[in-house]
Amino acid sequence: MTKYKQLAEDLKLEIQSGYYSEKERIPSLREIQNLKSCSLTTAKEAYRILEEEGYIFVIPQSGYFVHPNISSVISGPKNEFYPAVEADDRIQQIMRTVMDPKLISFGAAIPSDFYLPLGGLVSSFKKALQHKEIFSYGDLQGHRGLREWISKRTSIQGYRVNAEEIQITSGCTEAITFSLLSTTEPGDTVIVPSPIYVGLFQILETLKLKVVEIPYRKNEGISSDEYEKLIKRHKPKVFLFSANFNNPNGVLMSETSKQSLAKISYLYGIHLVEDDIYGDLYFYGTRPRALVSYFPEDPRGPKSFLCSSFSKTIAPGIRVGWVSSKNGIRDLSKRTRAYKISENNPAQVAVYEFLKLQTYERHLKFLRTEYKNLIDEYIELLSFYSEGILQIQKPDGGFVLWIKSPLDGDKLLYESKKIGMAIAPGSLFGLSKHWDNHFRLNVSVGFSPKIKEKLIQFSKLFLKKRKS
């Protein structure tokens, strides 16, 4: 690719991302020469391409500006700033249908009982009842043995923390909430990827935080250049993200990308809050490292928090999660004690008893094999019976599928309800309208004959739409 074509592509991405908005003046030819270290001829040719393709227009003696109807040119997601989040009412309205017990729920990202070690858990809870200390508050930072187990396992994965740098919480969502409470004040700005887990918007709304959405880009995940520009423009306090098998699109950031994002965050003093709840459910190779593991260790620098739980691997109802931090756990633990005295002691002891059986890794291996096979089976069936209409993003871990269709996701939820099933519409996973034609499916529902027949019925909804 020639230099001027490459420059044109780079500038297109900046406009597509929303870094330059409609009617906004962009750098002059001379300015772009300095910014991009290119010749005047290269700059002129690049701007000629942008004019021809409808990205920019020129006003004599004033300069170049982004086209006022740029949205008709851009097909990909843009980054957008939201001075306030108002999502809870909309989310609750949709989730009432998604969680309807009368429907087969492919929408909620909850593992079905078949994939949970229920027998081992029952035995572990019986053992826990023999411990007299379960009836007291227990350690305010969480069960010591459990924290030591988490510490050893996390350290093996490249993020070395000790038991004193871990706080047990009631699930991963609470871990994220307290991480944000200890790094932000109402009115601060947080950068989040788009799409992202629906529950995070409810947290951001409750904490009265401003939000910048940075979209996942095809084949690269989060763009480091785009991230750095957004930092300069919006001056956020926190980057809230999931680097390993993001829910809902299953994206796994490359190790190179993680290193680059960690370096940029540290350079600009941005706190990191990482949701790593799906990290153990990888399909290939070894367990991917957390992004925060690449963050420089500096007790006086920006804070980093790694949040997770056993909800996706052992059981969602036990509500045992944790947050680890090398330089922020003291303030976070102080805040947790302001809301409650201690965590659920019986559940912590029962989980620790289960982990002591040393069958957890075997259970994870079973889950990874099962979920990989289910992902393949679902993709094959949905692609065949929808006659290739669906654009399915194949993940390398987790147990959800992110799918683009010709139908609006909210309307698709209504249509799927008629055949006795529920999906999660894409509108749940972003503040913009870009994901309205997407939906998420939970493959942990299984692949029984009944489930298979339901998926076939669902796939044929798209054929009906095409014929009409």
From TrEMBL:
PANTHER family: AMINOTRANSFERASE, GNTR FAMILY TRANSCRIPTIONAL REGULATORY PROTEIN. This is HTH-type transcriptional regulator NorG. In the C-terminal section; belongs to the class-I pyridoxal-phosphate-dependent aminotransferase family. Residues 1-69 form the HTH gntR-type domain. GO terms for biological process: alpha-amino acid metabolic process. Pfam families: Aminotran_1_2, GntR. It comes from the Bacteria. Keywords: Aminotransferase, DNA-binding, Pyridoxal phosphate, Transcription, Transcription regulation, Transferase. Its cofactor is pyridoxal 5'-phosphate. SUPFAM superfamilies: PLP-dependent transferases, Winged helix' DNA-binding domain. SMART domains: HTH_GNTR. It comes from Leptospira perdikensis. GO terms for molecular function: DNA binding; DNA-binding transcription factor activity; pyridoxal phosphate binding; transaminase activity. The lineage of its organism: Bacteria, Pseudomonadati, Spirochaetota, Spirochaetia, Leptospirales.
